[in-house]
Amino acid sequence: MLLRDLKSIFHEELDQIYGKEEVDSFFFLCTEHYLNLPRFQVALEPEFTLTKSETDTFFKVIDNLSREKPIQYILGKTEFYGLKFKVNEHVLIPRPETEELVDLIIKCHSDGIEESQIEILDIGTGSGCIAISLAKNLPNARVYALDVSKEALKVAEKNAELNEADINFIRADILSFDYHSAFDADTKFDVIVSNPPYVRHLEKQEMKPNVLDHEPHLALFVEDNDPLIFYRAIAEFAVKNLKQKGALYFEINQYLGEETKHLLLELDFDDVELRKDLNDNNRMLKGIKK
Question: pLDDT per residue over 237-259, tens digit each?
């Protein structure tokens, strides 16, 4: 099959779901991934012919996309904060909003104030995108990353190896007491960061099928009657395990910004600051331990 004919099939099958521009993006991502043909080269080789095996692979991609499986899961990779990451159905696909959180932390801790090593803990690391991005951009940081999911940690460990980042991975549940044994009694952190589950079940109706039907619910959802369960547990942990003037950073549910901020104020954090993302949604929260 000619590559140009395959492109036409992509549009015939998928434009109604995604729109022409996004289908174009999917097609060129796939030609680069499966054929090692960058976009400009596709234009230069209109008569490029695929083997039957290659054609079958592309038709499987079309089938997956028609069921709204995320392209990142299909290709098994994505980019985050300028780095390459492997992803699969055991981890969330990193979001631009989380890049904003990482950028905030880097800006707050790379201005030369901390000349000695700083200790960072990422709780609920998933793919490892936060921990690894911080380790790569804060050379004076020692980074720990915790997750309850064994399968997620396998992905995170591969990503640390891929990006040559030295991360201390820990399997533990922040909602139970088993995490205590994972740290030395005198371990204190300069920074604790988390992007925990925060989507209430009542918000499912707002979610697109590519997220709802494919991304891990363990990393997405909390019960409607206690949506701050992870924030409370992490903030209480931070009270005990942050150094004096240590910083706690959260990615938060945009609808629960004031409630999450109040939680930190109740726990006596200083300089509690609610920040908006580029879409003008309440998305980040920062607090300083007294």
Answer: 999 999 999 999 999 999 999 99
Query: pTM to 2 decimals?
Result: 0.93
Q: Alpha-carbon distance 64 to 61, whole Å?
A: 5
CATH 3.40.50.150 fits 88-288, yes or no: yes
Radius of gyration of the chain (CA): 21
189 vs 243: CA distance, rounded Å: 6
User: What pLDDT is recorded for position 115?
Assistant: 64
Confidence bin at 176 (pLDDT 50/70/90):
confident
Please list the residues that pair with 157 across neighbouring strands.
none
Q: Which residues contact 202 (CB under 8 A, 6 or more apart)?
A: 224
User: In what helix (H) or strand (E) does residue 136 lie, and over which residues does it extend?
Assistant: helix 129-137
CB proximity list for 214: less than 8 A, separation 6 or greater: 68, 69, 70, 73, 89
**CA 258 remoteness from chain centre:** 23
Q: 45 CB contacts (<8 Å, ≥6 apart)? A: 3, 37
Nearest Cα residue to 160 out of 170, 172, 173, 174: 170
Backbone angles phi, psi at 255, to 5 degrees: -85, -10
d(CA 24, CA 175): 43
Cα-Cα end-to-end distance for the chain:
66
Please give the C-alpha separations between residue 96 and each of 175, 182, 284, in angstroms, as whole numbers. Answer: 27, 31, 12
Of residues 14, 91, 100, 131, the one with CA closest to residue 29 = 14
Q: Which two tokens stand for residue 182?
A: 């994972």
Q: Supply the DSSP symbol for 64.
A: H
Task: Report domain extents, the chain.
Answer: 3-67, 88-288
Secondary structure (3-state) at 203 = helix
Instruction: Report the C-alpha gap between 11 and 23 in whole angstroms.
Output: 6
The gap from C-alpha 99 to its chain's centroid, in whole angstroms, comes to 8
